[in-house]
C-alpha cells in the first residue's frame, strides 16, 4: 500500500506575523521578554482566532507571572525534561549521528537565505526555526511541516505538564496542515519508543542551557 505524502503548509500573508510572535514568546524569558511579550500580544490580536487565541492565553498568563518565576518555569520545563525538548531534530534522531546531519541541513538552509548562526546556537531550537520561518515563509513552512510529528509530541507533552507554553504550541499547530496519516503514525511511534538513543557523533552539537534571544541572525 502506498503511503500518503506529507502535506506541506500553504503560506498565507499572516503566517510570518504569527511565526514571529510565536518565536518571541517561545524564547527564554530574559530581561527583554516584557517588550517581546507586549509586541507579540499586539501582533496576536491581528491573527485568525485559532492562532491568536492560544497566544493571547499565554500572554495573559505571562503578564501576570513574575519574570523570575517565568524564567524558572522555562528552565524546569525545557532544560530538565527530555520529553519537552525544544530542539526539533531530537524527536526524530535523538542523540545520534543522524541528528548531526539534520542540524547541518538546517544550517545550510539558513545560510542559503543569508542567515548565520554563532557556533553555540543550535539551528533546530523551535524559537530559531519560527524566527527563520517569519523571514523565509515558504522554506520555513517546509521545515516546520517536516518536523510536524516532533512538534505534536512536544505540544502533547507540554499539555500533560500543564505548561503555559502549550498554548504557544497550539498556536504553531494552527498554522500548519492537520496531521496526515503518516504524521499520526510518526507521533504514535515517537510516543511509544521515544527518540533513538545512540550516543555518538554529537560532541560539536551539545545543546546550550537555553537560547535567550530568538533573533539570532536575520539576513545580513
Report on this structure:
The protein is mostly helical and 220 residues long. The chain contains eleven helices and no strands. It has helices at 15-26, 33-44, 49-63, 67-78, 89-93, 97-112, 126-135, 137-146, 148-160, 165-174, 181-193. α1 (15-26) packs antiparallel against α2 (33-44), α1 packs antiparallel against α7 (126-135) and α7 packs antiparallel against α8. The longest helix is centred in the middle third of the chain and has 16 residues, at 97-112. The N and C termini lie far apart (47 Å). Residues 1-6 and 199-220 have low confidence and may be disordered.
- The count of strands amounts to 0
Give the terminus-to-terminus CA distance.
47 Å
Shape: globular
Question: Roughly how much helix do the residues carry, as a percent range?
Answer: 55-70%
Low-confidence stretches: 1-6, 199-220
Biggest beta sheet attributes: none
Order of helices and strands: HHHHHHHHHHH
- Output the number of helix runs: 11
Structural class: mainly alpha
CA radius of gyration is: 16 Å
How is the secondary structure organized here?
Blueprint: H1 15-26, H2 33-44, H3 49-63, H4 67-78, H5 89-93, H6 97-112, H7 126-135, H8 137-146, H9 148-160, H10 165-174, H11 181-193
Entry summary:
The protein is mainly alpha-helical and 220 residues long. It is 58% helix and 0% strand.
